[in-house]
Design goal:
CATH topology of one domain in chain C: Rossmann fold
Shape of chain A: globular
CATH class of chain A: Mainly Alpha
Distance between the termini of chain C: 25 Å
Helix content of chain C: 25-40%
Number of domains of chain A: 1
Order of helices and strands of chain C: EEEHEEHEHHHHHEHEHEEHH
Oligomer: heterotrimer
Chains: A mainly alpha (290), B mainly alpha (279), C alpha/beta (261)
Radius of gyration of chain C: 18 Å
Structural class of chain A: mainly alpha
Distance between the termini of chain A: 46 Å
CATH superfamily of one domain in chain C: P-loop containing nucleotide triphosphate hydrolases
Strand order of the largest sheet of chain A: 1-2
Structural class of chain C: alpha/beta
Strand content of chain A: under 5%
Number of helices of chain A: 11
Number of strands of chain A: 2
Amino acid sequence: MMSRNPDRIFYGLCLAVALGLVFLVLGIGFTLLSGSWLSLKKFGLAFIWHRVWDPVSEEFGALPFIVGTVVTSLVALLITIPFALSSGIFLAEYAPARMAGPLAALIELLAGIPSVIYGLWALFYLVPLVRWVEMKFGAPPFGLGLPTASLVLAIMILPYAASITREVLKMVPPEIKEAAYGLGATKWEVIRGVCIPYSLSGIVAGLLLSLGRALGETMAVTMVIGNRSEVPTSFWDLANTMASVIANEFTEASKDLHLSALVEIGLLLFLITLLVNTLARIIIAKLQVK
Amino acid sequence: MSRLFYRKLKDRLALAAIVLLAFLPAFPLFHILYGILKQGLSVLSWEFLTHLPKPPGEPGGGVGNAILGTLMLAVMASGMAVPVGVLCGVYLSEYARGKFGEVVRVAADVLQGVPSIVLGIVAYLWVVKPMGHFSAFSGAVALAVMMLPVIVRSTEEILKMIPETLREASLALGVNYWRTVLKVLIPTGMVGITTGILLSLARIMGETAPLLFTAFGNPFWNLNPLQPVEALPLTVFKYAISPYEEWILQAWGASVVLTLMVLGLNLISRFLAWRLGGR
Amino acid sequence: MKASTIHEPKGPIIFDIRHLWAYYNDKPAIREVTFKIPEKKVTAIMGPSGCGKTTFIRCLNRLHELTPGARVEGEVLLRGQNILELDPVLVRRKVGMVFQRPNPFPTMTIYDNVLAGYKLLGQKLKREEADATVEEALRKAALWEEVKDSLHKRGTYLSGGQQQRLCIARALAVKPEVLLMDEPTSALDPKSTAKIEELVVELKNTVTIVIVTHNIAQAGRVSDYTAFFYLGELVEYAPTSQIFTVPQDPRTEEFLKGKFG
């Protein structure tokens, strides 16, 4: 009986740690909730659609940042989709195996470059480019703002979206591809008619996961979005995202209500990314059952 | 016949479009590497790596404190995340049956998806606020939470790949389960587990957002975990948005150092994973 | 010596194969194969595993070339035209294929699976035409009665044997001249196998069939001609009744007696 004791203790330790992980997640949710209590109490649900964010008069609404986050992330996703799908298709279907492996590894390495460095690069190479475009279009030539933030986000999530697309496409069974070739289909017809429909839900899940990344991305966006806490009225506007306003104002928030409002934005960001990621995971789980 | 021509043409056009769209993004991605190397390499020097920063306007100075701070944060975060993460992975692979295991896995997935800035807020509320000041420790807490899910899931996957016969062989010798885990399973999966840890380290070393209001930054040398500490990504951020020419140049220099550290970790873990797959 | 074991079939010829070599990464898998396949008959390709049977029939619709590092030399004349010089996409239209494992397209309904040969190629059919094609193909594949009420369910919902007949219907729907079958019953139970074999015998009235099998009895039951492959070479080719009763080559004889396999 004694000899089994250490096993029980070890099991208990592992279980405790696993429980700890669950409580950690619950704790994060709870902390965000209690941290934003002041703001929740004061503004209620109207916080979400209130358009004014004014730390001086202590009037807080999250709409400018929700709009900023949603616009930049969705535009980034839209820009990325054709490139990411093409890269994924190229690597999975066209590139010879000897070339595809190293290329995919390279892409993933580039995905590992820290966000703040993407921001630095964007600040010095992307901003002048966007400014030039803005002058051509007769928009105010800030160089910063929604377009720059969307572009840098698109570049950042592309490697991730491309490598998921590649992996999903590689899961298409060769037999059904051969069946299509056997019917006289060209390579493109096989990809279009068999591979893409087969992996569609996986590709969608991958794009959702990429969207989840874009939503929470902070540094690069903070550096180029222009930090203007008003609801943007045009795509050329300076703006702020949920993540960037937290990054900018958190250490300067001297008043409790201001801090609490920022925490509430963090809570909202947490919930939005949770929703998008959960959707993606549900799709993936269904995929595996099939 | 013309139908076939049309289909062939479509096939070719699709290929051309795919190749074009697939290779176009290589331009910005490589331009980033090019930018870092072009702007940053000229700044690198022994002094840059080992000295404290100087006030704007004065030439020279370095990011020695930031490099030390980044390493210190990485060590502290690993110290917290590795034991917890590995044990949690052991639980999932060896003990988890049924619903609760699923709950733990979902928790790890949720944790993986939490934006890093949100973890910064949480670490602020948990550590900085009660202590009353910024500290390396609070930054390490935020980073450790980011490392956890990667370590948990990779440990679980690696341990699950170990054949059942190995466990049985050890247990048949009368070895306790916990000894079997610590002396047989974990050593067998060591390379894979290390790969996971290095990947998670690469993930957090470049993180800025969770450090903004935890580790905060510090222009001086600091090894005290209870005091604020500088970190390379913080330096890049601060210098990049500063109006001073020489600071901006130093931001590029710090970027080179940071990129080399992160890519180095990625390459090592990739190499380990490749060797693991090769066997 | 060799020529005597390769029979020259009478009647119209559909495939005239001349000095065919097939390679994987410069290793020959088919060596110097020369023979003629008669029209509207069932020709069985038989031999121990690894003898190149599958490689051989994959040369007949140029599916072999999809494998990286694969290469073909020689001539394969389909009604006098060398298919190795034609566009593979056209060849596969005339020479359909059924695979070892049933492989209906999982994203398509039964109806769409039968029409896949048109839909994938972007060919639009009129409603009545499409319906008629589906019914005809499914009837030929002896599947119509079983699925006519569930045409719009997924093909993967069928049993293994039904799925294989669906794949046969899919291949027949584009009206090929030849149907290649690569061990079509190897993944099926005996009952489904019997059904497919019946079908093969019926189908030869409309289409030439080349069937790979490592099952000697199956070759005996369904085929008119049998080609025996060994280590990538065509050892013997003759009417099935002849090869089964008086094999000319000792290797054929040993295989038929079950000495290797």
